[in-house]
Amino acid sequence: MVRPVARKTFRHSPSKHARKQSTPVKSSHKPVHILSRLRKQKRDGEYLIPWAPFARIVKDIMTDMSANFQNNDNYFKIQRSALDALKVSSEAYLIQLFEDMDLLITHAKRKTCMTQDFQLVKRLRASYGDPVMMAIQSENGRF
């Protein structure tokens, strides 16, 4: 029994006059489902930061502080309502920060958030007496 020999097949190149298939152009707009999801989040008013990681960070900061205070028990306890108050205020602060950055972005006629926007917001807020940004400025010495 003789096996057939494998031969190389040649592809025919498309003719010079053949038209290339055009690919559909993606729209630069956000899809409708993302916009509706954003509207739903605004309407619901739920927390944006997950509870467990936020609680972990707060407790970690509190244990660092307890080491500074030389507490005998070496830990602090925090009530759920106090943790919720911290969470609400920190989210409100972050939202305000990003809204200010968004104003700077639109003023620069861009759509991308850059580090220079954050640095400018920090500088402006420190000049108007924002205690958080003033603390960062005193820590680092400059922005």
Automatic annotation (TrEMBL):
- According to the record, the segments passing through the membrane are none
**SUPFAM superfamilies given in the database record:** Histone-fold
One cellular component GO annotation, for this chain's record?
nucleosome
Name one matching Pfam family.
Histone
Which SMART domains does this chain map to?
Answer: H3 (SM00428)
| Gene3D superfamilies, A to Z | Histone, subunit A (1.10.20.10)
Which InterPro entries would you find in this protein's record?
Answer: H2A/H2B/H3, Histone-fold, Histone_H3/CENP-A
Identify the residues that the record assigns to the Core Histone H2A/H2B/H3 domain, covering every copy: 39-124
GO MF annotations in UniProt: DNA binding; protein heterodimerization activity; structural constituent of chromatin
| Biased amino acid composition, Basic residues | 1-20
Where are the annotated segments for Disordered? 1-31
Family classification:
Belongs to the histone H3 family.
Q: What is this protein called?
A: Histone H2A/H2B/H3 domain-containing protein
Organism source for this protein? Panagrolaimus davidi
**In the record, what lineage is assigned to the organism producing the protein?**
Eukaryota, Metazoa, Ecdysozoa, Nematoda, Chromadorea
